[in-house]
Specification:
By secondary structure, this protein is mainly beta. It has three helices and 15 strands. It has helices at residues 23-27, 51-56, 285-292, and strands at residues 34-35, 38-39, 66-77, 82-94, 101-112, 129-141, 144-155, 165-179, 186-190, 194-206, 211-228, 230-243, 252-262, 269-280, 298-311. The strands form two sheets. It has a twelve-stranded antiparallel beta barrel with strand order 3-4-5-6-7-8-10-11-12-13-14-15. The two termini are 30 Å apart.
C-alpha cells in the first residue's frame, strides 16, 4: 500500500488496524456485560455477533441517524525499533432506514518515528499522512458493506520527487463476523476459558497507490481471566495481504499469538501485546529480487498496542 517514489525507498506493509479495516477485530465484539441475569448498561460493548457495528461506528440502541467514531492506536514495533500512530475521527449520517445507505466525513492520520522521505537514501516504513475525506457507505448485509470515498492526503514528511498533496479515492468492500465470550460482572476472579473467534476481509482500489489491495485477518482464542469489569483474552492471529501490482511489501503473511487486556469496556481502552512471524510471499522472480534488496524473506516482531476506540 505504499508507492515507490524513488529507487532507494524502503517499504513495509503492516497488517494493522487501518481506518475501517479491521479496527473492530482489535477491539472485539463482546456481548454486553451482565451481572448475574440482569443486564448492565455498557455503551462501549455490543451484542454477540454484532462485530459489524464496531467497523461501522454504529452504537447499539441509538436511534439517531448521526453517528461518530473516535479511534486512536499507538504502538511500538521491535522489528523497526520505533513508534507508530494511527488515529481518525469519523462522523456519519444514515440516509436510508436500516443503515442501508450512509454518508460520512473522516479525518485520518498515520505517522511513525522511523520514516524519512528525503536525503540520498530515504526510508518509508509506513504512510505519514493526514487524510481529509468524505464518502458513501452501502450496506446490503449486516456483515458486508462497500465504501466509496474521495479525499485529499497531505504528506507529513518530505518526499523526494513527490508532491506534498494528492488526491485519494478509495472503493473498498469489507466483510467480517465473529463470536465472543459473554462477560459477567462479578467481584471474584474467574477463568471461563470461553471461545473467541473472528475473521475479517477487505478488498478495494486505492488511487493513491493505483493498486487493488486485499487484507485478511482472523483470530482464534478465548477468555482466560475476568474480574469485576476487567478481562484478559489470548488468541492466535493470522494476517495476509495481496495486491494486483505484485509489490512485495503488499504480499505477505503473518501469524502469531497475542493477548488483549480490557480494564473496563466502557472506557474503550485496550492494551495488546502480539508476536508476529511474517514472511513475504514472493510469487514471482521480480518480487523476490526486489525484496532481497531490502529485507530477508522472513521476519519476527513484537508489537505493543495502546488502543482507544469510542463510539457516540
Amino acid at each position: 500500500m505504499f508507492s515507490t517514489d524513488g529507487p532507494h525507498f524502503h517499504h513495509l506493509r503492516f497488517i494493522l488496524p487501518l481506518c475501517f479495516l479491521g479496527v473492530g477485530v482489535v477491539r472485539g465484539g463482546e456481548p454486553e456485560p451482565r451481572a448475574g441475569l440482569s443486564p448492565v448498561s455498557s455503551p462501549g460493548n455490543r451484542p454477540l455477533g454484532d462485530l459489524l457495528k464496531l467497523y461501522q461506528g454504529e452504537p447499539a440502541g441509538v436511534s439517531s441517524p448521526w453517528w461518530t467514531r473516535l479511534y486512536g492506536a499507538a504502538f511500538y514495533d521491535t522489528r523497526w525499533d520505533g513508534w507508530f500512530l494511527q488515529s481518525y475521527v469519523q462522523e456519519g449520517y444514515d440516509l436510508l432506514p436500516g443503515k442501508l445507505l450512509s454518508a460520512y466525513g473522516i479525518a485520518w492520520m498515520t505517522a511513525d518515528t522511523r520514516s524519512s522521505g528525503s536525503g540520498p537514501a530515504p526510508t518509508i516504513i509506513s504512510d505519514n499522512i493526514l487524510l481529509m475525506a468524505a464518502g458513501i457507505r452501502y450496506r446490503p448485509s449486516p456483515y458486508f458493506w462497500i465504501d466509496a470515498q474521495e479525499g485529499v492526503a497531505f504528506d507529513l514528511i518530505e518526499r523526494n520527487g513527490s508532491t506534498a498533496t494528492r488526491g485519494d479515492f478509495r472503493l473498498v468492500a469489507t466483510g467480517g463476523t465473529g463470536i465472543y465470550p459473554e462477560f459477567l460482572v462479578h467481584d471474584d476472579f474467574r477463568s471461563p476459558l470461553t471461545l473467541m473467534a473472528d475473521c475479517f476481509l477487505s478488498s478495494g482500489y486505492y488511487s493513491r497507490y493505483d493498486n487493488v489491495i486485499t487484507y485478511a485477518q482472523g483470530r482464534l482464542g478465548g477468555r482466560v481471566a475476568e474480574v469485576s469489569r476487567a478481562f484478559l483474552d489470548v488468541y492466535l492471529r493470522g494476517d495476509a495481504a495481496f495486491d494486483t501490482d505484485g509489490e512485495f511489501y503488499n504480499n505477505l503473511f503473518e501469524i502469531g499469538p497475542g493477548l488483549r487486556f480490557t480494564p473496563d469496556p466502557d472506557w474503550g481502552l485496550f492494551l495488546l501485546v502480539e508476536y508476529h512471524h511474517g514472511f513475504y510471499a514472493g510469487y514471482t522472480d521480480a518480487m523476490r529480487q526486489r525484496r532481497a534488496l531490502f529485507y530477508p524473506a522472513q521476519y519476527d516482531a513484537v508489537r505493543f498496542f495502546l488502543v482507544l476506540d469510542r463510539e457516540f
